[in-house]
Design brief:
About 45% of the residues lie in helices and about 15% in strands. By secondary structure, it is an alpha/beta fold. It has a single domain, classed as 3-Layer(aba) Sandwich (D-Maltodextrin-Binding Protein, domain 2), CATH 3.40.190.170. β1, α3 and β2 form a beta-alpha-beta unit.
């Protein structure tokens, strides 16, 4: 009965939201009127609801019963699913079965835009996507669309577990979500049917990108012909030669069999594939203190678990690509430096659209993590 009720509630949200343009690795957000919600609108909605709910109660003795719903657009073999599944297992175990989470992968409760909007609105409790998915709801997340930010995965994880998270909380809460944690699937890489050893090799290559202004600007700045395309159309586009290449983390490359229709994987490490894990803000704030503590503990352990699984899976996915006949190309420091230099146009765009404060905080956090 609960699952039926959830599906009915979500279908109502989706019908109001209209047709979203989201896909499993990106999308556009819209309000129920079909236009993007501003942070101010969402904050006002969240504050009004919080006033109605009153202060969070305190629990003594055993935990109250909660039955939550978690949504994602990706499949069960992804880091997102592993993370939420571990979170649900830990909550169930440590609450004595009184706090449970029903997980709906594969877009069962709508695409990324639709379920994110539903989490903000409160008809879905928990969501997981990636930072790019949040940009239309919380524009400040565009800072993570600045290419070639991080030297390696360890530096990226240090930043995402440091003081920058507190700065992000203000934007999250204004946007109507409580960020439970971040995981990742490593970096996004370039795949192509043409080898790339230097910047000039990208000239004119038709590279499929997400429908994201920052990603489009980056690949065009590198001399490629950035080609926005729905994720579901990419495999066919590569097979038919409509596009020369695409960019994704190894998780998505192998998960969608790109290695079968591509000859090269070029390790550009251009953008961290940062996975978000969030809850409705009012739900979280209304929980008893001990339940919030439990949620935080389980989320922290679940994201750490997801990171360990990501490291294992990336090595396995690389081997899968090699076994399929793909050549993996590692770019030298000179070329990586040129990529970062060309990325400056995107940094300027992000500063113009979001302001300097968070950009400077992120860059400072990266310097501290070196």
């Amino acid at each position: 009965m609960r699952k039926l009720a959830v599906m009915v509630a979500v279908s109502m949200v989706i019908s109001l939201a209209g047709c979203g343009s989201s896909e499993s690795d990106g999308g556009k957000g819209s309000s129920s009127s079909g236009t993007p919600q501003t942070e101010t609108q969402v904050k006002a909605q969240a504050e009004a609801q919080a006033e109605d709910d009153g202060p969070a109660p305190k629990t003594t003795g055993e935990f109250p019963e909660y039955h939550w719903t978690a949504a994602m657009s990706v499949a069960e073999n992804t880091i997102n699913y592993m993370m939420v599944e571990k979170f649900a297992e830990l909550l169930d175990e440590r609450s004595g079965g009184r706090i449970t989470v029903d997980i709906y992968p594969g877009g069962q409760l709508g695409n990324t835009t639709e379920f994110t909007e539903a989490v903000i609105g409160g008809s879905i409790d928990i969501g997981t996507g990636m930072t790019t998915d949040l940009v239309d709801f919380i524009p400040s997340y565009a800072v993570f669309d600045m290419p070639n930010l991080f030297a390696d995965v360890e530096q990226m994880r240090a930043v995402l577990s440091g003081g920058l998270v507190s700065a992000l909380d203000e934007y999250n809460n204004q946007g109507g979500i409580e960020m439970l944690g971040f995981s990742d699937a490593g970096f996004r890489q370039l795949t192509s049917n043409k080898p790339v050893h230097q910047l000039a090799d990208l000239s004119g290559q038709k590279i499929r990108v997400m429908t994201n202004q920052y990603h489009i600007a980056y690949w065009n700045a590198l001399g490629a012909a950035a080609t926005p395309m729905q994720f579901t159309e990419v495999f066919m586009g590569l097979s038919q030669g409509t596009i020369d290449g695409e960019e994704n983390p190894y998780m998505n490359i192998v998960g969608n069999n790109m290695q079968e229709v591509q000859k090269y994987v070029i390790e550009t490490n251009h953008i961290g594939h940062i996975i978000t894990f969030f809850m409705n803000y009012n739900l979280y704030q209304g929980l008893p203190e001990d339940v919030r503590v439990l949620v935080d503990e389980c989320a922290e352990e679940a994201t750490a678990y997801a990171n360990s699984k990501a490291d294992e899976s990336i090595a396995e996915y690389k081997k899968t690509c090699e076994d399929a006949g793909c050549e993996i190309i590692v770019l030298d420091d000179k070329v990586m430096g040129e990529l970062k230099e060309k990325a400056s146009v995107v940094y300027d765009m992000v500063r113009e659209n979001t302001g300097d404060e968070l950009v400077d905080q992120l860059l400072a956090a990266i310097n501290e993590a070196e």
